[in-house]
Amino acid sequence: MTNGTTGRSLLLTMAFSALLVCTLLTVSSRPARADSGVLPPRPTVEVASSSPVGGFIRLQVAFPNSWPWTAHPWQATHTQVQWQTGEGRWVNVTGWYGALDDVDVDTDGSVTGEKTWWVAPRDFGTGPFRWLVTAGNSGTALAASEPFTLPARSANTVSMDVSLPE
């Protein structure tokens, strides 16, 4: 190639590169349209107050040192919140059923599981309720908490403790 050809090739390459960069900058600087599939529209969230609306109920489950972890891992331990009817029967609360959220292993080797549910303001102060701890989906009852009443106001937590049998 001659110097003239090399110079023109270099000039064309630089011009093409500049055009490509300008095109990419123009495309990437355009706002995404909601119907383009790039970014969905995002709802606007307004926070009216810094305090939470609602309360919580929390169960803490103490596992015995002799717990058969290989046969029954903590993830297979389920909880169910029940309410007591006027006739004294315990009835499952729809939606407040599930596996433990987490476990904590203390330095002494003791294991405590935890489950927390949110409580709507309309339910504040109602009861009696109890926690039932079961062996997975089989429903075999392992332990039940003492009866309790839901929290009385926002940001309150009612905690209950149960110990599983050896």
Give your account of this protein's structure:
- By secondary structure, the protein is of the alpha+beta class.
- It folds into 2 domains: 3-36; 55-163, Immunoglobulin-like.
- Helices cover 16% and strands 36% of the residues.
- Strands 4-5-1-8 form a 4-stranded mixed beta sheet, with no helix packed on it. A 4-stranded antiparallel beta sheet has the order 3-2-6-7, with no helix packed on it.
- Strand 4 and strand 5 (111-119) form a beta hairpin.
- The longest helix is centred in the N-terminal third of the chain and has 27 residues, at 3-29.
- The chain is globular and about 40 Å long.
- Residues 20-47 have low confidence and may be disordered.
Average pLDDT taken over every residue: 80
What is the terminal-to-terminal distance? 89 Å
* Strand line-up in the sheet with most strands: 4-5-1-8
Q: Give the tally of β-strands.
A: 8
Give a nutshell description of this structure.
This protein is of the alpha+beta class. It contains 1 helix and 8 strands. It folds into 2 domains: 3-36; 55-163, Immunoglobulin-like (Sandwich), CATH 2.60.40.
Keywords:
single chain; 166 residues; alpha+beta; Immunoglobulin-like; 2 domains; 4-stranded mixed beta sheet; 4-stranded antiparallel beta sheet; 8 strands
List the helices and strands and how they pair.
Blueprint: H1 3-29, E1 55-63, E2 77-84, E3 90-99, E4 102-105, E5 111-119, E6 129-135, E7 140-144, E8 157-163
Parallel strand pairs: 1-8
Antiparallel strand pairs: 1-5, 2-3, 2-6, 4-5, 6-7
